[in-house]
Amino acid sequence: MPFNGSGSFSPYTPGNPAVSGTTISSTAFNNTVTDFAAGLSNAMTRDGQSPATANIPMGGKKITGLGDGSAATDAATVGQTATALAASSGSSLVGYLPSGTGAVVSTVQTKLRESVSVKDFGAVGDGVTDDYAAIMAAINSAAYGTGYYISAPAVYFPPGTYKVNTTIQLKKAVRLYGDGSGLPYSNAPILKFPAGTTGIIVHRYNTIGITVEGSPTTAGDGSIIEGLNIMGTTGTADSYGGHGIYLRARAKIADCYLQGFKGNGIHIVANAGAGGISEGNANNFYISGGASYLHGGHGLYVDGADANAGTVISFDCSSNTGWGIYDSSFLGNSYVGCHTAGNTLGAYKTDDANAQCVFSGCYSEGGQPASSILPPSISIGGLHGAGFASTSKGVLSGSSIGFRANYLAGASSDASLSVALGAGGTSTEAMNITTSGGMTWRLQYAAGRAYWDWANSGGSEHLTHYDANTVTFSNGYARDLSGAANVYMRPAPAGLPLGYVDKGMLARITLSSVPTSETWLQGDIVYNSLPAASGSIGWVCTTAGTLGTLNGGATTGSITSGTPTLTVSSNTGLKVGQYITIATVSGIYKISAIVGTTVTLTTNASSTAVSQAVAFSNAVFKTFGAISA
Fold first, then answer.
1. What is the DSSP letter of 507?
2. Residue 489 and residue 505: Cα distance in Å, rounded?
3. What would the pLDDT profile of 227-237 be if each residue is shown by its tens digit?
4. Which H/E stretch holds residue 39?
5. CA 532 centroid distance within chain
6. pTM value > 0.70
7. Which residue from 76, 238, 312, 436 could staple onto 414, CB 3.0 to 4.6 Å apart?
8. Could you give the residue ranges of the DSSP H alpha helices within 430-519?
9. Burial class, 412, CB count within 10 angstroms (exposed 0-12 / middle 13-18 / buried 19+)
10. Which of 135, 147, 182 is nearest to 313 (CA)?
C-alpha cells in the first residue's frame, strides 16, 4: 500500500532502502516500481486526467487561481458569486422561508417585490431633484388584475423631501405610504409641489386630468394615501384647482398632513354622469387622522351627488382661508371627533337641504366664525367654542338638543326646537320653540310654584297656551280652530293633553259665547270669558260635529252604498275632519280626504244617493258649571 490512509507514502520493503555495494534484487525493484505506479495512480493530475474519488479536506487552506464555474457542478469563485448576487436577478438566487407552520418557500426577490420603494426607481428625496418620473415609474412597475379595476404594488416613500413638479394622477389602485403620523414634525416623507400645483388626483375609470376619457381605461378606486406630508405653495392655481388631494373616486386617506395649497387641502367633488371636471364617484371615501392647515381654500371640501356616505375621523382642519370643513354633498357624510381652529370663514359648514350629515363629538375653537349646519344635518356632542349660526337647527351639545320643527299641518317651517336632556346648571328651561317670526316659547318649571309654564316675552301661563292659529291633530287630521276668536288650547290639569287615538287632542278654549263655527269633538270645553251671576262657567261639546252652513246650502253629492267615496258638486267650504250628512243616506260621516270634487269619508255609505244635499252635521254644546245668582 503506497499511501497509509493518512496521506503518507511509504516505499516497499524489504529491499528498501537500497544499501551501497549490494545487489538490488529484481523482486525488490519491481515491487518498488509497482508501488510508485499505484501511488501516482491515486494522485489527481494537473491536466485533469484523474478525478477525486473522495472528499478532499483542505486543512484550512485555500484553492487559489480558480476559474469561474459554468456548470451546476462547477466550483464558483468568490468574485463570480459576488457578481451574481449583485446582479438585478441576484435576489432570485436567495431563498426565503417565513417562520410558522405551513410557510412556503419563495425567493428574496419574490418577497421584496411585494412592495416597492420610490428609491428603487431612482427617486432622490433631496428636495432639489424632481422625483416625479421615479414616483410614476414605481407606481407603474406592475399591474395586477384585468379590466377597469387593476392595482399596483404598494409604493413606499422613505424619509426625505421629494420634489414633485407634476401632479400625480392615479389610474390604478395603489397604496402610497410613508412613516408619518399625520403631524408636521413626524418622521414623514415630504412631497413638495410647486406653486398652484395640485398634488394627487385619484381618478375613476373614465376620468383623466380635468375631463373624461373618450374610452374608459382603468381606475384608481380603492387607492390608499397614508403617512405622507403633502406640501403645496400658494400661487396661481392650475386647471385642477391647486388642491392637495383631489378625489374623483373613492379612496382612503390616513395620517397625512397637508399644508399650504392654493385651493383646498382635500377636495372631493364627484357627480357620476356629469362630465367635465366634476365627473366621478367618490361615495364611501374614508379619511382618518392627520391634519389640513394653511390652505387658500377650505381644509376639507366635499360636494356632489356622488360624494356621499363618506367617513372622516379625527381630522384637524385649521388656519385655512375658507372653512375648516365644508360639506355640500347631496346625501351627507359622517364626521367623528374632528377639530377646527382659526379658519377665516368658520369651523363647520353644510349647505345642501337634502344632505343628512352627522358631526359626532367634533370640536371647534373660539376665535373663528360660527359653524353653519343646515338642517337636516346635525351636530351631536363635542365642545364648540365657535358656536353655531342661527341657521344651525340640529345641534345636540351639552345638556340640550335642538332641531328644525314642522307645523302640524305638514308645512315645513323655519321654527327651531330645543329640548333639555338633563340638569342644565341652574336653568329651569326644558324646551324652547322659536318661530321664524321671532316668537319664542319656553316650556319651563315655574320655580316656587310647582307647575310648568309656557312662557314668552309677554308673560307666562300655566300649561299650556298656543296662539289662535295653532293647529292640532284629530284622528290623524289637522284641526284648525283659527275661526274662533281668542282661542287658547289648554291640556288637562295634570299637564297631559286630553285625548286618545280615536279623537286626538281635545280643546280647552275661552270664548264669550257658545261657538257657531268650526269642527268640534265630543269633550271639547269652551270656558265663558264673561261669566256672570246666574250664568255658567262654560259649554261642553256632547256631540261631535261641524257648526255653520255649508256653502249656503248649495252643495249636493252622489255616493254608492258600501263605498266611502262621495262626489260633490263643489268642494267650497269643505275641510278634512268635518262632519257631514247626506240627504236620503242615514248616519253622520267624517271627511278623511279631499281631492277636487272627490271626498273620501272615514266610513262606507249605508245607501246610495244621487245629487242629494250635503250639509254639516252640527256639534251640540251644553252649558256646565252653574253660577249662583
1. P
2. 9
3. 999 999 888 88
4. helix 26-41
5. 67
6. no
7. 436
8. none
9. exposed
10. 182
Strand boundaries in 63-196, DSSP class E: 95-96, 106-107, 115-117, 126-130, 154-156, 161-163, 168-170, 175-177, 190-195
DSSP E strands in 124-183: the ranges are 126-130, 154-156, 161-163, 168-170, 175-177
Yes or no: say if 418 and 398 are a contact pair by the CB < 8 Å rule: no
Band (pLDDT 50/70/90 cuts) for residue 444 is low
The CA distance from 41 to 29, in Å, is: 18
Mean pLDDT of the chain: 84
What does the angle CA 279 – CA 282 – CA 284 come to, to the nearest 5 degrees?
Answer: 160
Backbone angles phi, psi at 406, to 5 degrees: -120, 145
What does the pLDDT look like over 477-491, one tens digit per residue? 334 554 544 343 433
User: If you write DSSP's letter for every residue of 519-550 in order, what string do you get?
Assistant: EE-TT-EEEESS--TTSEEEEEEEE-EEES-S
Q: Is 86 left (phi over 0), alpha (psi -120 to 50) or beta?
A: alpha
Helix (H, G, I), strand (E, B) or coil at 135: helix
Closest CA to 375 of 400, 345, 398, 355: 355
Whether residue 470 is predicted with pLDDT greater than 90 in this model: the reply is: no
Q: Tens digit of pLDDT for each residue in 593-614?
A: 999 999 999 999 999 999 999 9
* Dihedral pair phi/psi, residue 253, rounded to 5°: -120, 120
**Angle at Cα 67 formed by Cα 63 and Cα 73, nearest 5°?**
85
- Please write the tens of the pLDDT for every residue from 577-591: 899 999 999 999 999
